[in-house]
From TrEMBL:
PROSITE patterns: DHPS_1 (PS00792), DHPS_2 (PS00793), HPPK (PS00794), PTERIN_BINDING (PS50972)
Record's keyword terms, sorted: ATP-binding, Folate biosynthesis, Kinase, Magnesium, Metal-binding, Multifunctional enzyme, Nucleotide-binding, Transferase
Protein name: Folate synthesis bifunctional protein, mitochondrial
Cofactor dependency: Mg(2+)
GO BP of this protein: folic acid biosynthetic process; tetrahydrofolate biosynthetic process
């Protein structure tokens, strides 16, 4: 298909010759009156920036992505989501900024026309430059082409001075340069050897959390700055056979009482689980899981103490996830990362809620089989396999800004593996970063609470005697980069994370 058609009705075209391609295979395209040269090419990889500061900003993003997909842009990657102070015209609301990477057969000006139509259809009107807008869509890169015409410059002319543009752009790359197209994007960087150096010159990661720029995760009706402090997820097992507290909270009254206790002790999130995922657990049906789950969720949502807190459902059934969200749950926590229900990713994408993707091999009945415990390097192998789960979720329409990572402590791992993961969280992040910086920057959750490996190390056969060891494991995880800890005993671990956060804060600003 032609990527350059007669996109302008009168006289502007593109003249491309052999001399327009440099040694790196980068094409420079300049407007030429009365000249259109057709170039036959395959799909082109593009990066498109998004910004919004009018109305429901996140809903604007979701609608723009939907319209882009309908218009012939296949989105393959999403950057993180940033809330930023306005630039240039400062007397206006704060922006949400991000970017997406995808492929399209649309020519560059055809693509521009599609994006401008989406902006118009979503209510953008001609206003002051850099002023408020419901949606702003800009082409940052188009294949390996540099484009200069009367109406389009690619790379975008002011990209190099804007941290709120460069940050999401960097997210769409991996630390490994994996294609000629990506190499060409790095070569476009002005005053730097590559885009990574440009980002560092602008301030790099030190900008995030300062100077009006926050990396956020949308959940409920809020934007969660999850990096500002470590969060505690309290476990509520509505099961007969969970390894630690099965059978204790089967009645609605007992469950509500436990939720009230965990909230009073500092829980930020309550994670409802109505299906046991302990080793060799028997699987129950969707109907039985919902029968246990929904009455408790309904009762908890009536509690005044739950105001401002988050609710999560621990399930690998998409139907359970859907019903739980309809009844007020904010996050879906899937121990299989979407592998045990082929509909999970598409359902969560449609629900537009955060998705916690955990690493596990097999299922709870087989995860501890010998073949599932074979690793060459547990942190690198877990990172690669978890990345594959995350990539599948993203391609199904769950943006990186709604994904949370869980390396799956205790799931298809032995004691040594679990210890290696606790001390190797930075390795897991860096291995994921080789392929996707956005996914590597997602919140990271760990769940070591009362698990068997702690009992083996500390000679504690009873699960409820492992709380001190859990505190030590949680402390290790937080100091190595965990953002959310999933625990049974909220009080002990809430104290541990407060101390860890204070230590990290002093280290950050030392």
């Amino acid at each position: 298909m032609n990527i350059f058609r007669r996109l302008l009705p009168t006289k502007v075209g593109f003249k491309i010759s052999k001399n327009s391609c440099n040694a790196r295979g980068i094409y420079s395209i300049h407007s030429s009156p009365d000249c259109v040269v057709e170039v036959h090419s395959s799909e082109q990889e593009v990066i498109i920036a998004l910004g919004s500061n009018v109305g429901n900003r996140l809903q604007n993003f979701d609608e723009a992505l939907h319209l882009m997909k309908k218009s012939g842009i296949q989105i393959t990657r999403h950057a993180c989501l940033y809330e930023t102070a306005p630039a240039y015209v400062t007397d206006q609301p704060r922006f949400l900024n991000s970017a997406v990477r995808g492929v399209t057969k649309l020519g560059p000006h055809e693509l521009l026309g599609v994006l401008k139509k989406i902006e118009k259809d979503m209510g953008r009107t001609t206003g002051i430059r850099y002023g408020p807008r419901p949606i702003d869509l800009d082409i940052l890169f188009y294949g390996k082409f540099k484009i200069h015409s009367e109406i389009l410059d690619v790379p975008h002319e002011r990209i190099w001075e804007r941290p709120f543009v460069v940050a999401p752009l960097i997210d769409l790359l991996g630390s490994d340069i994996d294609s000629d197209t990506v190499a060409s994007w790095h070569s476009f960087s002005k005053h730097s050897s590559d885009l990574f150096e440009l980002w560092e010159k602008l301030g790099g990661e030190s900008l995030v959390g300062r100077n009006g720029m926050k990396r956020v995760l949308p959940v409920g009706n809020n934007l969660w700055d999850w990096s500002s402090k470590t969060s505690v997820m309290g476990i509520l097992n509505l099961t007969l056979d969970s390894f630690s507290d099965g059978g204790k909270y089967l009645s609605v009254e007992a469950a509500v009482s436990q939720v009230r206790l965990m909230l009073s002790e500092g829980a930020d999130i309550i994670d409802f689980g109505a299906q046991s995922t302990r080793p060799n657990a028997s699987k129950i049906s969707v109907e039985e899981e919902l029968d246990r789950l929904i009455p408790v969720i309904e009762a908890v949502n009536k509690m005044p103490e739950v105001e401002g807190k988050l609710l999560s459902v621990d399930t690998f059934y998409s139907d359970v996830a859907s019903e739980a969200v309809k009844n007020g749950v904010h996050l879906v926590n899937d121990v299989s990362g979407g592998r045990l229900d082929s509909n999970m990713h598409s359902v969560v994408a449609a629900l537009r809620v955060p998705f916690i993707a955990m690493h596990m091999r097999g299922d709870p009945s087989s995860m501890q089989n010998p073949e599932n415990l074979q690793y060459n390097d547990v942190c690198k192998d877990v990172a690669f396999e978890l990345y594959e789960r995350l990539k599948e979720a993203e391609l199904a329409g769950i943006p990186a800004w709604r994904l949370i990572l869980d390396p799956g402590i205790g799931f298809s791992k032995n004691t040594e593996h679990n210890l290696d993961i606790l001390t190797g969280l930075t390795t897991i992040r860096s291995e994921i970063a080789r392929r996707s910086l956005a996914l590597s920057r997602a919140p990271l959750l760990i769940g070591p609470s009362r698990k068997r490996f702690l009992g083996e190390v500390c000679a504690r056969a009873a699960a409820d005697e492992r709380d001190p060891a859990t505190v030590a494991a949680v402390t290790t995880g937080i100091l190595n980069g965990a953002n959310i800890v999933r625990v049974h005993n909220v009080r002990y671990n809430a104290d541990a994370l407060r101390l860890c956060d204070s230590l990290l804060e002093r280290k950050r600003y030392a």
